[in-house]
Specification:
This protein is of the alpha+beta class. The protein folds into two domains: 166 residues, no CATH class; 125 residues, no CATH class. It contains nine helices and twelve strands. The strands form four sheets. Strands 1, 2, 3, 4, 5 and 6 form a six-stranded mixed β-sheet that branches. A two-stranded antiparallel sheet has the order 7-8. Strands 9-10 form a two-stranded antiparallel sheet. The longest helix has 20 residues. The chain is globular, with a radius of gyration of 20 Å.
Length: 302
């Protein structure tokens, strides 16, 4: 039998709400509703990574949130990759992990997964989290396949750094940072064919914002990043440029400015500033002149 620290769900909810409110006050721009949803992500991920910590990899914006301790943009989905598994096998494993009782009064209901088009095979599973009998949050998990990692996953902490006695938390395995960067660079460069019309340029404004945040916060080796870029561009069948620029599509200036408002840790609030930062980070790698490591504190390759 599980020894529960809190007497009932109401006691846990009160303790949790108090800590989330304090965290929202301590983080400029943080919303209580976002933090509550992120805590629901943590309770699900605690089950996933407790059951099979080496089988899963956390991807996407959720992985970036974990790396940056809440300084990245909020997201309404959790991206997960299960190594060596088909999407149907990953869904079975996710359902099994979600059913575990960790003594935290949380439970999860999972609707049937459905395929979506996201540039690679993706299965979206809508999820409702309950604390006791009361609905706590709704979100979805995107299970992905076709992932190629050139590095080893990184160890990251839970999304919401609060301490509740008796509530177990675990660390997660996140998509390697060089592969994360390569994924976003290629998504920005790639053109999307349209029947009877010119190929469409990317409108993934959030990826440019994420790259700017990474340039300020993440250290990585030039050789490792170059390898990751070569791998991802080959997988997508695209040729990378020797210098980085914004996609040739209307609306990028206003689109980027709109997205930038929702990224707490972002210094570059306009397109020109973001491009200057990202070019300083990426151009030496794309042009083949970078060596050593990227120093985010100095904004150059050593």
């Amino acid at each position: 039998m599980i020894d529960r620290h809190y007497s009932d769900p109401a006691a846990l909810r009160q303790a949790l709400t108090d800590q989330l409110r304090q965290l929202a006050r301590d983080r400029p721009g943080a919303q209580l509703s976002d933090l509550q949803r992120q805590f629901a992500y943590d309770r699900l991920l605690a089950r996933v990574f407790s059951a099979e910590p080496e089988a899963w990899v956390l991807k996407g914006a959720t992985a970036l949130l974990a790396r940056l301790e809440g300084s990245a943009r909020h997201t309404l989905d959790v991206d997960l990759y299960r190594r060596g598994a088909r999407l149907d096998e990953a869904e079975v494993a996710l359902r099994a992990a979600a059913s575990a009782d960790l003594g935290d009064y949380f439970r999860f209901t999972l609707e049937p997964g459905r395929r979506i088009a996201e540039g690679r095979a993706t299965l979206r599973v809508p999820i409702t989290a309950y604390l006791g009998a009361t609905e706590f949050a709704r979100f979805h998990v995107d299970l992905v396949s076709g992932v190629v990692m050139t590095g080893e996953p990184d160890d990251v902490s839970p999304l919401v750094p609060i301490d509740l006695p008796g509530i177990a938390s675990v660390h997660y395995r996140a998509y390697p940072i060089v592969d994360h960067v390569a994924d976003k660079v290629c998504a920005l460069v790639q053109l999307h064919p349209r029947a009877g019309r010119p190929a469409q340029a990317s409108t993934r404004y959030r990826d440019l914002a994420d790259l700017a945040v990474m340039a300020h916060t993440q250290s990585m080796g030039a050789a490792a990043l170059r390898k990751a870029l070569a791998s991802e561009s080959s997988r997508r069948g695209i040729e990378l440029p020797t210098t980085f620029s914004a996609p040739d599509a209307a609306g990028w200036r206003t689109g980027y400015a709109r997205v930038a408002k929702d990224v707490p840790g972002l210094a570059e609030r306009n397109l020109e500033a973001a491009l200057a930062t990202v070019k300083q980070f990426l151009d030496p790698v794309l042009g083949g002149t970078a060596s050593g490591s990227w120093r985010p504190d100095r904004q150059h390759w050593t």
